[in-house]
Design brief:
Length: 361
């Protein structure tokens, strides 16, 4: 293995720490990761010219610093594309922040506020390419979401995607890293493709979260933890299976006007214990029903007096929008939260997802 002392202006050990959590994924998928210089010289890792290759450029301030390269039979699949993007984003963020420190001859450990703001704004833009805000088109269903980090870059993530298995069920993931800022964002960038791959390959959402947890515990050794909810929706029948690792309980909004009901279940958050031993909740999403998922940034939002937005206000917001489209429902919750903390500003990332089954015509 080639191993240079410096990559993209960063010590190689920092790059290793970004790559290390992906080792288990790479082994399972028969992949190799490498970092190349702009001229193609391999700086870290190894490549195999005989197999499929995908690359993602590393750029800071428009300058090409190198490339992240993956080789192997699985290269080019959506999950591996996401993993490569996550690795590249993590390296670019570190390189950009180091660059901000060095600009203008600033002493080590200090930054120019205007420059750092610009760099973090770019990091936020990069992160939004990882947190997909566009839901897939699913016949018979209405999907919508809202994501707003409290800082320039955040630790919430979610995904709605069609699983490449029989019937193409809808995969649903929402998660919250227990932290903020760059460290939480990097853990988010790592965990998202891992959960995506696990939910695609596992027999159910509980097994998917269990697999992800093992990687977090065995490989990552981080002081940060993740609350996560994963679900599989059979779009033909409305059958829904949900596993919850310490996350906020999802809410079922029935079409018949019945009470908005939390879906019970849950276990420890991911990354803390070797096993989760999660149970799965099973229910049917009937025509006209809606499922609302959110992170604790919604209910924990505070006004200038310190009062929490809380669960009761959330339920009232949903009730006022009962029967609306998923987009309007998410928009109503978003606006109520924003108006509640208009002067104080959000203290945590805010993520809201709504999945509705259309009424029969």
């Amino acid at each position: 293995m080639v191993d240079r002392a410096d990559i993209a202006g960063l010590p190689v050990e920092r790059i290793r720490r970004i790559l290390a959590p992906f080792d288990r994924v790479a082994t399972d998928q028969g992949l190799s990761f490498a970092i190349e210089a702009p001229d193609g010289t391999v700086l870290l890792g190894a490549t195999d010219a005989a197999t499929t290759t995908i690359t993602h450029e590393l750029r800071v301030g428009g300058a090409l610093l190198g490339r992240v390269v993956a080789t192997g039979a699985a290269a080019g699949t959506p999950a591996i594309d996401a993993a490569i993007e996550a690795i590249a984003t993590g390296i670019e963020e570190l390189a950009e922040l180091d660059r901000a420190v060095r600009l203008g001859g600033a002493p080590a450990g200090t930054t120019d506020p205007a420059t750092l703001a610009r760099e973090l704004s770019l990091s936020r833009h990069q992160q939004r390419t990882i947190v997909s805000l566009v839901a897939p088109d699913v016949a018979g269903y209405d999907l919508a979401s809202h994501y707003e980090p409290a800082r320039e870059i955040g630790g919430d993530f979610f995904e709605l995607f069609r699983i490449r298995r029989r019937g193409h069920p809808l995969g649903i993931v929402i998660a919250d890293v227990a932290g903020k800022g760059i460290s939480a964002a990097m853990l988010m960038a790592f965990a998202r493709p891992v959960i995506h791959t696990a939910l695609t390959a596992a027999t159910g959402p509980a097994e998917a979260l269990e697999r992800t947890n093992r990687i977090l515990v065995d490989e990552l050794h981080t002081a940060l933890f993740i609350t996560a909810l994963a679900a599989k929706l059979d779009v033909r029948t409305g059958a829904l299976r949900i596993a919850n690792a310490g996350h906020e309980l999802p809410l079922l909004v029935p079409a018949d006007g019945g009470p908005i009901t939390p879906i019970p279940g849950g276990g420890p958050l991911m990354g803390a214990f070797a096993r989760l031993d999660l149970d799965e909740a099973e229910l049917e999403l009937r025509p006209g029903d809606q499922l609302v998922l959110y992170t604790d940034g919604v209910t924990d939002t505070r006004s200038t007096t310190g009062e929490r937005f809380g669960r009761d206000r959330l339920l009232a917001s949903i009730e006022r929008s009962r029967g609306a489209t998923a987009l309007d429902l998410v928009g109503a919750i978003r606006d109520d939260v924003a108006n509640f903390c208009v002067a104080a500003g959000p203290a945590d990332d805010v993520t809201i997802v709504a999945v509705g089954r259309n009424r029969a015509r």
